[in-house]
Amino acid sequence: MTGRPWWAANELLAFVLEVGALGCLFWWGFTLADDLAVQLLLGSAVLAAAVVLWALFAAPRARFRPPLAGVLAVKAVVLGGGALALYGVGHPAAAAVLGVVVVANTALAETFRRRPAPAG
Q1: Is 21 inside a domain boundary?
Q2: CA dihedral angle for residue 111, residue 17, residue 21, residue 105, rounded to 10 degrees
Q3: Distance CA 44, CA 35 (A)
Q4: Cα–Cα distance between 56 and 59 in angstroms, integer?
């Protein structure tokens, strides 16, 4: 099973990054207004848009399965949007780290998905 623990760890990291990006998007949307009701509405709207986009095109059981370039574009919008949202709420260093980790994780995930599992 050489290689499989790395694949599983990377998939777990991907899930954590997805949830984190969604949280950052909500946070950013929340900061766009002063009134609590509007903050909740905007945060929820940004979050819902990202969740729907992800569920339709990028999730493992996505309703529509575009070619790899399309899936990567959706991931760039949602995960990259999470990093930009983190920057937008005033955390540029954390946003840069998130962006680098997202790129590395996505590259590894696509590499693992295209490489056959080792025999054994």
Answers
A1: yes
A2: -30
A3: 14
A4: 7
What is the tally of structural domains in the chain? 1
Q: Is residue 103 part of a domain?
A: yes
Claim: this prediction has a pTM higher than 0.85: yes
Picking from 11, 4, 8, the residue whose alpha carbon sits closest to that of residue 106 is 11
On whether residue 120 sits in a domain, the answer given is no
Structural domain of residue 104, as residue ranges? 4-114
pLDDT in tens, the chain (120 residues): 455 788 889 999 999 999 999 999 999 999 999 999 999 999 999 999 999 999 999 998 999 999 989 999 999 999 999 999 999 999 999 999 999 999 999 999 888 776 655 555
